[in-house]
Amino acid sequence: MLIKTIATSSVLFMSAVIASPAPQVSESTQDQFFDNIARYCGQAFEGRVTEANFTGVETFTENRLVMHVRKCTDTELQIPFHVGDNHSRTWILKKTGSGLSLKHDHRMPDGSYDDATMYGGHTADSGWANAQSFPADAFSKEDFIRRRNPQSIGNTWHMYIFPDDYFAYRLTREGRELRVDFDLTNPIDLPPTPWGYEGTE
């Protein structure tokens, strides 16, 4: 009788565990980082390249660079990154329950997805309220191989946010670095809607 009671209790306990939603894991430093960016929702800022140690970066150095914290929810920030008249790039920063993910949404002028899109990474540690790093995730590594860019599997993306001062986007891998700093002290006029996001205000 005792064995039957224990077995019944175990089944009920396991049923309760399975039925209950998994708790959302949230590091305070990641929440603070997320909130530090979200406070600028609805604003746009101009940036400039501050580090670049490779050829082919002229696309960034010869064009006006603008970031726009365009759309914000409790769990996701959509941040278009405009390079001159190219409105194809949107950074998507999302709370995942086990940290933060950063994805690069690339679109064509007609709004369709570029062949290279949704690559990015996920935090591997708690980071800091002012800085988070996103090593390339499994999807991105497989996609880099598919697109014959195996050197990119070592990519790590970084974001830095110092309220009332600057925001920075940085890409690093062995032998390569790109960094763009945006002046948070001087909001500018809002840029056009990024490609593929029409009607999503």
- For the record, the CATH architecture stands as Beta Barrel
- The fold-level CATH name is Lipocalin
DSSP strand content = 35-45%
Major sheet characteristics: 11 strands, antiparallel
Enumerate how many helices there are, as a single number.
4
CATH level 1 class label: Mainly Beta
Shape: globular
Mean pLDDT: 89
Distance between the termini: 63 Å
Based on CA atoms alone, the radius of gyration comes out at 21 Å
Uncertain parts: 1-23
Whole-number count of domains? 1
Could you characterize the architecture of this molecule?
With 201 residues, the protein is α+β, with helices and mostly antiparallel strands. The chain has one domain (22-183): Lipocalin. It has helices at 2-19, 28-38, 58-61, 138-146, and strands spanning 44-52, 65-68, 71-72, 76-83, 86-95, 100-106, 119-122, 131-135, 156-162, 166-173, 176-183. Strands 1, 2, 3, 4, 5, 6, 7, 8, 9, 10 and 11 form an eleven-stranded antiparallel sheet that branches. Strand 4 and strand 5 form a beta hairpin. The N and C termini lie far apart (63 Å). The model is unreliable at 1-23 (pLDDT under 50).
Produce the secondary structure layout.
Blueprint lengths: L1 H18 L8 H11 L5 E9 L5 H4 L3 E4 L2 E2 L3 E8 L2 E10 L4 E7 L12 E4 L8 E5 L2 H9 L9 E7 L3 E8 L2 E8 L18
Antiparallel strand pairs: 1-2, 1-11, 2-4, 3-4, 4-5, 5-6, 6-7, 8-9, 9-10, 10-11
